[in-house]
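On clarity, I found the account of how folds are encoded harder to follow than it need be. Since the whole study asks how a given chain folds, the encoding of that fold should be made plain. For illustration, here is how one protein appears when written out as sequence plus structure tokens:

:::
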Amino acid sequence: MAVKPTLKNHRHQTCHRGHTILSAILIPPFLRGARGDLMPDHNTFITTNFHLPYNSKLASRAKQLRQNPTPAEQKLWQDCLRTFPFRVLRQRPIAHFIVDFYCAALKLVIEVDGDNHFTEDGKQYDWERTQILMGYGLTVIRFTNEEIMTQFEEVCERLEGLIPPSPP
């Protein structure tokens, strides 16, 4: 029997791209663990057999995005994340989103923000999206295109700083 996330205070809105989004706080079932045990916090590793929601309808779009990365995404992938100590997936569908990079071992989403993220609608959409992803127990870290292109070493150091001293 599949358990669906609980919605609180939901309403439908239109984002800056014209997509209808559900404005809500998602309370995913796995925060209580697959067996009902409480997870200590979102900074620990997932020890249950829970899988994030995957929308197969987004797979072809994710593949297109992987084949046509932005210059900042390409640089971050080629020069840092491709050889990251943990497996990182590019353009990974999670629920009804496609995240730029996802590391399952660290429960980490890495987003690369271009100009469209700095409008009021873009900021609101990103905030809501981040809240939903955090509701799944994920950590979301964002970098601007400019940060990646001009402060690349600092970006890589921040990512490496997220690796726990004694990984599993």
Q: What stands out?
A: Strands lie at 6-14, 20-27, 89-94, 97-103, 108-113, 139-144. The longest helix spans residues 120-135. The chain has five helices and six strands. The mean pLDDT is 77.
